[in-house]
Backbone:
């Protein structure tokens, strides 16, 4: 076994001087601000909201003021492709209000990366969250996470005009996206000529064998009815600006509900029973003593009589023969011998 190697300032004076001057990173400095990054999924479709949650913990032992200073953003993200190509933010001059963190305190922030970075190109990206502390004059970053941007399978698409919008048009697309444990249904509204995507809404689970219903009313408002679970459906109403106007859940114990366009041009849902899937179920009722069924009537027979009855039941029953004169059975006739001459 080799003896341990001991560091001595006398033996290595130059190494000790470099350490004291700060040429080597100090691990305690790196741990003064802890940055954690979490993203719910690893695969997203293009233009879908990509929510990143960042947790910042102050371990410096002092109060910290996190604020922009001399062009350095106190909070931001570093995104790059797997080959190292950086992705700049859509607006590099974004501003975030300063915040003060007490010693030992943690804060959490959730940011939609789709609004900050152009992540429409298909491929994989590495994402880090970074925090700059002015008092410590240092950046602190989270471990990187890898995400993938892909595209869903097109189920339905229609280009419509915008009421009162002149020649403006909107392209409505219904897409499905297969994940590991389920399939999600998406609705995208975009102006392809202007290159503007108004929304890419995740409408929730979608059973692939149940084709979703989609209808447009007179204002080109979008109505979607999808099968989420056996005998369970979700209805969505979305405007051309991407705003969700109505959402509701339906149960269909017998017949499948459907969308129907009425004579006045409006769209309604026929069938199904509305319910709230997030409602708290009613408490279970506990049976009371008074709810017990009445007791069975007790037999008045004694054990001895019950034994006699059981014995009598066990005896085989004989058929009674009517009394009369005793008849003597007639003798059987003997066969007549055969005489052979």
Residues:
């Amino acid at each position: 076994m080799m003896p341990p190697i001991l560091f001595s300032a006398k033996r290595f004076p130059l190494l000790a001087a470099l350490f004291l001057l700060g040429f080597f990173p100090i691990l305690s400095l790196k741990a003064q601000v802890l940055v954690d990054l979490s993203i719910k999924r690893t695969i997203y479709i293009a233009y879908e909201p990509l929510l990143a949650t960042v947790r910042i913990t102050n371990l410096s032992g002092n109060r910290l003021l996190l604020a922009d200073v001399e062009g350095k953003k106190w909070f931001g993200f570093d995104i790059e492709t797997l080959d190292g190509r950086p992705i700049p933010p859509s607006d590099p001059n974004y501003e975030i209000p300063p915040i003060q963190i007490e010693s030992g305190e943690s804060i959490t922030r959730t940011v939609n990366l789709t609004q900050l970075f152009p992540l429409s190109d298909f491929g994989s990206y590495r994402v880090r969250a970074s925090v700059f502390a002015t008092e410590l004059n240092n950046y602190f970053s989270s471990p990187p996470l890898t995400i993938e941007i892909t595209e869903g399978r097109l189920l339905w698409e229609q280009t419509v005009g915008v009421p009162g919008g002149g020649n403006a048009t909107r392209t409505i697309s219904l897409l499905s996206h297969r994940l590991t444990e389920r399939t999600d249904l998406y609705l995208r509204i975009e102006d392809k000529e202007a290159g503007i995507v108004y929304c890419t809404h995740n409408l929730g689970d979608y059973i692939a064998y149940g084709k979703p219903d989609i209808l447009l009313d007179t204002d080109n408002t979008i109505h979607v009815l999808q099968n989420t679970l056996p005998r369970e459906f979700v209805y969505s109403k979305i405007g051309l600006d991407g705003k969700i106007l109505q959402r509701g859940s339906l149960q269909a114990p017998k017949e499948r509900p459907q969308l129907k366009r009425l004579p006045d041009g409006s769209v309604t849902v026929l069938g199904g029973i509305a319910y709230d899937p997030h409602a708290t179920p009613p408490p279970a009722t506990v049976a009371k003593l008074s709810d017990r069924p009445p007791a069975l009537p007790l037999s008045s027979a004694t054990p001895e009589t019950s034994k006699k009855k059981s014995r009598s039941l066990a005896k085989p029953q004989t058929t009674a023969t009517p009394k009369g004169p005793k008849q003597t059975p007639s003798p059987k006739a003997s066969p007549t011998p055969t005489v052979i001459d």
